[in-house]
Design goal:
binds ribulose-5-phosphate; Alpha-Beta Plaits; 13 strands; six-stranded mixed sheet; single chain; alpha/beta; four-stranded antiparallel sheet
């Protein structure tokens, strides 16, 4: 099975968490795109829908869904999203698609966060995947210098502007043995909008697709 088939199986397994009357949050990325393509099959179970990016909203609307804002909907029952890495405590690195800020807001607003990945993304320690950080454009050099002091190698995602009008810094070579501490530390740098470590609000359920099927992990 290739990565794309695994992503599809993980997305399919997530449908079971959409129960009748669900206020659903939808993430961003190629794994979630498979999920969005499957959502018409469970349309009658979805009460209200919020999305974490303009890209996901466009795809949802193509399928005829009405996408509302989080302000309109309030709390979510379930948030389903992919990730770039997960450790065994279901702490994540996210933001490969650049939607990390809105993703963190929706994950925070959800009673249950279901994360869907293929097995290549389950790691012992977070940090092999370059850590995405959304920053205010006027603070990009300042934030980059702070990250170098923390022994990271920050690289600007050239030509990329987030849905919030900000820039993304991808930080290579960061060791993240303590994700909670690192998340708080990077969040304290002035100019950082969001760091792509999801440890304070980790996933509740991780669905990992491999050649042998989809495995579920909970903390
Ligand atoms: C977007 C994300 C995605 O969930 C993450 O990058 C995984 O993407 P994909 O499903 O395409 O592998 O955090 O900001």
């Amino acid at each position: 099975m290739d990565a794309s088939q695994k992503k599809q199986s993980a997305a399919l397994a997530a449908l079971q968490f959409i129960e009748p009357g669900t206020r659903l949050g939808v993430g961003t990325g190629s794994t979630v795109n498979f999920l969005i393509d499957m959502l018409p099959d469970v349309r009658d179970r979805i009460d209200r829908l919020v999305s974490s990016s303009k890209a996901s909203t466009a795809l949802l609307e193509k399928h005829g869904f009405e996408v509302e804002t989080l302000n309109e909907v309030g709390d979510l029952d379930v948030y389903i999203d992919g990730a770039d890495e997960s450790n065994k405590r279901l702490q994540l690195i996210k933001g490969g698609g650049g939607a990390l800020t809105r993703e963190k807001v929706l994950a925070g607003a959800a009673r249950r966060f279901v994360c869907i990945i293929d097995d290549s993304k389950l790691v012992g320690m977070l940090g092999k995947f370059p850590l995405p950080i959304e920053v205010l454009p006027m603070a990009q050099e300042f934030v980059a210098k702070r990250l170098v002091k923390m022994r990271g190698q920050p690289i600007w995602r050239e030509g990329f502007v987030t849905d919030n009008g900000n820039h993304i810094l991808d930080v290579h070579d960061l060791q993240i043995p303590n994700p909670l501490e690192m998340e708080a530390r990077i969040n304290r740098i002035p100019g950082v909008v969001t760091v792509g470590i999801f440890a304070d609000r980790s996933a509740d359920i991780l669905l990992i697709a491999s050649d042998t099927g989809v495995r579920e992990m909970r903390v």
